[in-house]
Amino acid sequence: KAGVTQTPRYLIKTRGQQVTLSCSPISGHRSVSWYQQTPGQGLQFLFEYFSETQRNKGNFPGRFSGRQFSNSRSEMNVSTLELGDSALYLCASSVDTFSYEQYFGPGTRLTVT
Amino acid sequence: GDSVTQMEGPVTLSEEAFLTINCTYTATGYPSLFWYVQYPGEGLQLLLKATKADDKGSNKGFEATYRKETTSFHLEKGSVQVSDSAVYFCALRPGGGNKLTFGTGTQLKVEL
């Protein structure tokens, strides 16, 4: 069974631009969560989607948004990029919103210049 | 709010040494506890979990016991290998939903 895939793997953007990251969960998984990993703040929860609905949200500004499609694939968008948005963005999938097992993708490395 | 505190790294050990990485947590209710491992250039992998007090999670020679009285979930391995070199994250999840709260991570380096 294929694992969680994230595209693109690496991305360089300029301040003020916007970016969209994509995550394809493991087949049959309906919950997708997003995390931001930085050296200073560590791993922080962004949001979780299940059945196309946002179920939980972390403490991030409204510039960070996401959505989930009917095939469970998810995208997250960051508008008006800031230097501090440079990070590794990780996606995790699980069967449902109560599953203990979350499987992480390799991440998208975003660099904002 | 929920929080996880784990020991600072890096931790450097010789191969076959005993490993302990301390983890304590603060949470309301009865969270589930996890250890994840991150190898260079990769995402996180679930190493082990415990879902209630006194549960012991184990995998690949690693163990951790959910101690509610001390709010701890320390990771141990009897004999580490060079291939165990990675960053280890302790995490908790409250009763519902998939939101994980992570510790800052502990880098482990195992030398021959």
The general outline of chain A is globular
Rg result of chain A: 13 Å
Share of helical residues of chain A: under 10%
Shape of chain B: globular
Task: Tell me the greatest interface.
Answer: A-B, 26 and 24 residues
Number of strands of chain A: 11
- Spatial separation of the terminal alpha carbons of chain A: 37 Å
Helix-strand makeup class of chain B: mainly beta
Ends of chain B: how far apart? Answer: 41 Å
Beta content of chain B comes to: over 45%
Summarize the SSE layout with pairings.
The complex is a heterodimer of chains A (113) and B (112).
Chain A: E1 5-7, E2 10-13, E3 19-24, E4 31-38, E5 42-50, E6 53-57, E7 64-68, E8 74-78, E9 87-94, E10 103-104, E11 108-112
Chain B: E1 3-6, E2 11-14, E3 19-21, E4 23-26, E5 32-38, E6 44-50, E7 56-59, E8 62-65, E9 75-77, E10 86-93, E11 101-102, E12 106-111
Parallel strand pairs in B: 2-12
Antiparallel strand pairs in B: 1-4, 3-9, 5-6, 5-10, 7-8, 8-9, 10-11, 10-12
What report would you give on this structure?
The complex is a heterodimer of chains A (113) and B (112). Chain A is an all-beta fold and 113 residues long. Chain A contains no helices and 11 strands. Chain A has strands spanning 5-7, 10-13, 19-24, 31-38, 42-50, 53-57, 64-68, 74-78, 87-94, 103-104, 108-112. Chain B is mainly beta and 112 residues long. In chain B, 0% of the residues lie in helices and 50% in strands. Chain B has strands at 3-6, 11-14, 19-21, 23-26, 32-38, 44-50, 56-59, 62-65, 75-77, 86-93, 101-102, 106-111. The termini of chain B are far apart. In chain B, 38% of the residues are buried. The interface between A and B is medium-sized, with 26 and 24 residues.
